[in-house]
Structure formats: C-alpha cells, structure tokens
C-alpha cells in the first residue's frame, strides 16, 4: 500500500526531528506551528511603544536596545497620537481581520501584567470598553482589592459630579432626561449608579463584575490563562516587559503573535528617554524569525489607520518627538 504524502500538519516525533538536519527540523517545526496558527486560531497582538536606549550592564559594557518604561511609568511625556492609536486599536481593532471571528458587538481583551495595570492612571483603569485581564503570580486578592478601590473611586467621583450638576435629585435624571443627555453625561451617570461587586469563577480565575458600564475584568495567574480568558474577542497583550517576554517565549503562542510597535524618537537630536524597563527581543535579528509587514498589511490587521498615514513619520512638534507604527509577524505565519 502506498504511503500517504506527509503533510505539515502531521507532527514529527522528537526522534524523527533529532535524526534530521537540525536547521531543516527547526524550519519544519516553525512551519508546523505557523500552519496550526493560521488554522483558525486568532492572532495575539503585542502592542508596544519603544524608544532607542542604551542599556548599561553590571560589568560596565553598554548595549543599544529599546526602552519601554521608567519608574513604573512611560519614559516619555503624553503623546496624543500614540495614546489615540493605542485606544483605537485596542477598542475597535481587528474588525477587518480575515482570521477574526469577532462579532461587531464583541469586546476586545487587553492582557497586562500587574505592574502595567498599576501604571495606568487611576481614573483610566480599568480601561473602558475593553475586557481587562490582569496577570499576577502572587497577589490575586491584592489585585482584586486594588481594582475594587479603583472602581469605587471612579464611582464616587461620578457621584460628586452628578450631585454638583443636577443637585440632590441626580438619581432621577437618567430616567427623566435620557434623550437630552450627551454620551459623556450618560456614561458618568451610569457609573455613578453602578453596582460594584465580585464574582469568583470555579476554575480559580477571579472575575470582577460586569457591573460597571462597558468593561469587564479578569485576574488570572498565568499568561496562558489570560489567553483562555480572552475567548470571545480581539486579543491584545499590552505589556509590560515581563509579560511580553512570557508571550514571546511560549512556543504555542509564538506563531500567533503579531507585534504593533510604535517607534518614538526625539527630534531635537538629543539621546532618547531614560529607561529602566526594556523590550525583551531583537526584532531585526534573523534568528528570531520576525518579518516586518507592509504598511497596508498592518492596516488590514486592525482596520485602523497608522498615525504616520502615508508618510514615514508622524511629528508631534509640541512634545518634540516623531513616531511611526511598524507591524511584525513570524516568517511563514
Ligand atoms: N512602552 C510601552 O508600550 C509599555 C507598555 C506596558 C508597560 N510599560 C511600562 O513597563 C513597566 C512595567 O513592566 P514590568 O515588566 O515591570 O511589569 P509587568 O510585566 O507589567 O508586570 C509584572 C508582574 O506581572 C506578573 N507576572 C509576570 N509574569 C508572570 C507570569 N509568568 N505568571 C504570572 N504572573 C506574572 C507579576 O505580578 P505579581 O508581582 O503581582 O505576582 C509581575 O510582578 C512600567 O514602567 C510601564 O509603564 C510600557
């Protein structure tokens, strides 16, 4: 009987791989993972903003690298175009992705490490209109307490705003004047009236409620659990360094990864911003198998226009920076 032709989907055993030329075996492994990745598994987007940086090692040598953070925050001042792109992509992105199974009403997921969650200003966290998935090794209870504090603080501020604007009877405003309210007023009033609480999932991951308007939160104990939790939506890993590293080093996830990198450079000729947290992988190094995607392809991934549009860079004269978004995918993916 004739042996059926091999396919890239049949998994070679470890001994089979060992007996072959190691380069060919590695290429076949990558091809196999990539093929599996394109078989319906949604891409996972790593969204990062980087600045050129020099890193000093303990033995005194220096190395050029990409900085992403400083003192638990971003190394650069607020850059509107960067913030807008991040918000648009994570809220509305992936709608035109051919691999996407997302319905228009589905909410995207943003996956982040506990330190990145804390780095978001309190009034903006959890990020609205997205499912926030926070990864922690040690402090599930603490993170949940922190999230509850954030929500209570936001609710209190919304209540203060409502009673100042509408007086003692602010609670009646929502039902009486709904059609006259702007979107922002509606949002604040809903927040002021929201019910904050917690639900625990039997699987061990803790889910904080959906009872604040337009967002949801999960606190999970591993990067893999975070992807399982992001099951109905576009998946965006938003850092920081430790979490990017976990995703990049995970062999199952790696072929599914696409990187949306915003490069940020100063325009006054001075060195980049000082950093203490760094992007963990050299994207230009061939051994890491990254391929820079065409601009049009990057736009098609998310359906969102790049900040630099058709130009090479977008300039922010006020802050004194220029920026551009680049997209990366694994070769063969
Ligand atoms: N430029 C950018 O685009 C960008 C994006 C995001 C963040 N940042 C910056 O990056 C910095 C934060 O990055 P970071 O690397 O210090 O922290 P991080 O990755 O945001 O969070 C680290 C924390 O995540 C949890 N964690 C990490 N790996 C885990 C694993 N494998 N399993 C379970 N939990 C895990 C641990 O939480 P516990 O300690 O609770 O166990 C750990 O302390 C800040 O300066 C921030 O502003 C920059």
Which short descriptors sum up this protein?
333 residues; alpha/beta; Dihydrofolate Reductase, subunit A; 13-stranded mixed beta sheet; 10 helices; 33% helix; globular; binds NADP nicotinamide-adenine-dinucleotide phosphate; dihydrofolate reductase activity
Element string (H = helix, E = strand): HHEEHEHEHHHEEEHEHEEEHEE
**In angstroms, what separates the terminal alpha carbons?**
34 Å
H/I helix tally: 10
* Biggest sheet character: 13 strands, mixed
Bound molecules: NADP nicotinamide-adenine-dinucleotide phosphate
Strand content: 15-25%
CATH superfamily of the domain at 40-55 and 62-100 and 234-333: Dihydrofolate Reductase, subunit A
Q: Regarding CATH, which class of the domain at 40-55 and 62-100 and 234-333?
A: Alpha Beta
Region (Disordered): 1-21
GO molecular function: dihydrofolate reductase activity; NADP binding
Domain DHFR: 43-330
EC number: 1.5.1.3
Structure notes:
This protein is an alpha/beta fold and 333 residues long. The chain is built from ten helices and 13 strands. It has helices at residues 14-19, 22-38, 80-92, 114-119, 140-166, 170-176, 183-193, 223-229, 241-249, 295-302, and strands at 44-56, 62-69, 109-113, 131-135, 198-200, 206-208, 216-220, 235-237, 257-266, 277-278, 290-292, 314-316, 321-330. Strands 1, 2, 3, 4, 5, 6, 7, 8, 9, 10, 11, 12 and 13 form a 13-stranded mixed sheet that branches. The longest helix is centred in the middle third of the chain and has 27 residues, at 140-166. Residues 1-18, 29-38 and 96-104 have low confidence and may be disordered. NADP nicotinamide-adenine-dinucleotide phosphate is lined by residues 48-49, 68-69, 72-74, 112-116, 119, 135-139, 221-223, 238-243, 246, 277.
